[in-house]
Structure formats: C-alpha cells, structure tokens
C-alpha cells in the first residue's frame, strides 16, 4: 500500500497519514487542515473506509468533524480508554488546549464526534489490513497501528524519532510508557518503518541505536 503524509504548518505539528491502494483508503489520525488527502481520494476514485486514531488528544482529532461531514459513511475508530477526550464535545480536550497553549477552541470543532466513533475493542483490535496494539503511556488509550504487509508501524505520540511522547499530562503514565516502548522493541523487526504522530519518520533499528528510551 502507499503512504502519504500530511503535516501542515498551520497545525499543532501533528502528522496524519493516508494509506491506500488502488481501491481502498484509510486515514491515520485526522488531518487538522481541511481538504487534506481529498485530491488523492478523488483522483484515484478511492473509498475512504476508516479513520484510525492513535489517541484522542486534540491535535489528532481536530479535523475529525470535517471528515465526518465530508465522508459520512466512513467509520471512525479509537480506544475506549480515551473516551474522556471525546465526550461532551471534547470538553476535556478544550480545557487541555487552554491549559497547554492558552488557546480557546469552540466546541463546534468537535461536534458529532462522540456519536460516530467506534472502539477498537469491539473489532478485536483489527481494522481492515491493520493490527492494533494498546500502547498506554502518553494517554491511557494510545495505540500502535501496524500494517504488516508494508512492515509499517504508526506510533502516534508513543514513539518519535529520537524521543517519546510526553507523560506529564492528565491520564498519562511514564511507567506505562516504558512498558509500551519495551513492547515495540521486542515485538517488531528491526527493519520496521516508524511513522510517528509528530516529526520525521524513522526505523526501529535507528531508534534502538539512537533513541535513549530504547537503547
């Protein structure tokens, strides 16, 4: 499958990915910019099957309401453990943004999300060609999304190139993060391609050799 990254300058530095073949498309984390991936989906007459969230922090779901309006038949998945960030038009997320960045975000940005979202748990942690693994730490509901046929691992804010996600937020845990990193280190080939929620891509071998949290 092909992987197209979107990381607009106007976003909070978050990455989203379009994963597609000649027929089906999937989005990993909702792109903050309106219209991201539309050209490819339209050009190749793709069917957007699902949006898979690595976790439910604001910078990974801000574009979700627009995606839902544009692609009403698309399924949306997340871990139920991150439900507090979804409920009540994402009140917790809006408070999170306010405390972290001093920015007020209107609840309309999150309208309709709670009613449309499904949990990975109800799909036995497998969606389309992807296998989903829990990776708590950055948030309780953080997950890894693995595309075995391309040996590609979407790590969200669990693992970055040379670093890891923060664990000083509400519902974060450094102890859980270390366990999740150990899981990555011990359960995927060194050749695994790492597609993180922020910054540049990497490989697991590079991280084992250069990332202090995996060495």
- The spatial strand order of the largest sheet comes to 1-2-3-4-5-6
Oligomer: single chain
Which structural class should the secondary elements be placed in? alpha/beta
Sum up the overall morphology in one term: globular
The parts where pLDDT drops under 50 for at least 5 residues are none
Specify Rg, calculated over alpha carbons. Answer: 16 Å
SSE string: EEEHEHHEHHEEEEEEEHEEH
pLDDT averaged residue by residue? 93
State the helix count.
Answer: 7
> How many domains, as an integer?
1
Written overview of the protein:
- The chain has 215 residues and is α/β, with parallel strands linked by helices.
- It has one domain (2-210): 4-Layer Sandwich (Metallo-beta-lactamase, Chain A), CATH 3.60.15.
- Helix content is 27%, strand content 26%.
- The chain contains seven helices and 14 strands.
- The strands form three sheets. A six-stranded mixed sheet has the order 1-2-3-4-5-6. It has a six-stranded mixed sheet with strand order 7-8-9-10-13-14.
- The longest helix has 15 residues, at 87-101.
- The mean pLDDT is 93.
What order do the helices and strands come in, and which of them pair?
Layout: E1 2-6, E2 16-20, E3 24-28, H1 38-43, E4 47-52, H2 58-61, H3 64-70, E5 75-78, H4 87-101, H5 113-116, E6 117-119, E7 126-127, E8 130-134, E9 143-147, E10 152-156, E11 159-160, E12 163-164, H6 174-187, E13 193-196, E14 202-203, H7 204-210
Parallel strand pairs: 3-4, 4-5, 5-6, 10-13
Antiparallel strand pairs: 1-2, 2-3, 7-8, 8-9, 9-10, 11-12, 13-14
């Amino acid at each position: 499958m092909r992987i197209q990254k979107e990381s607009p300058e106007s976003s909070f530095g978050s990455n989203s990915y379009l994963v597609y073949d000649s027929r089906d498309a999937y989005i990993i984390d909702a792109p903050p910019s309106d219209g991201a991936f539309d050209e490819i989906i339209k050009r190749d007459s793709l069917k957007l099957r699902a949006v898979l969230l690595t976790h439910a922090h604001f910078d990974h779901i801000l574009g979700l309401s627009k995606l839902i309006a544009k692609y009403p038949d698309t399924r949306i998945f997340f871990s139920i453990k991150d439900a507090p960030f979804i409920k009540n038009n994402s009140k917790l997320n809006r408070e999170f943004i306010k405390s972290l960045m001093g920015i007020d975000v209107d609840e309309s940005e999150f309208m309709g999300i709670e009613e449309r979202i499904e949990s990975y748990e109800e799909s036995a942690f497998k969606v389309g060609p992807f296998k989903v693994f829990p990776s708590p730490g950055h948030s309780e509901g953080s997950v890894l999304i693995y595309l075995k046929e391309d040996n590609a691992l979407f790590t969200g804010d669990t693992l970055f190139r040379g670093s890891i996600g923060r664990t000083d937020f509400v519902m974060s845990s450094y102890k859980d993060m270390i366990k999740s990193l150990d899981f990555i280190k011990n359960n995927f080939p060194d050749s695994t391609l790492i597609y993180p929620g922020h910054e540049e891509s990497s490989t697991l071998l590079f991280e084992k050799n250069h990332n202090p949290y995996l060495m």
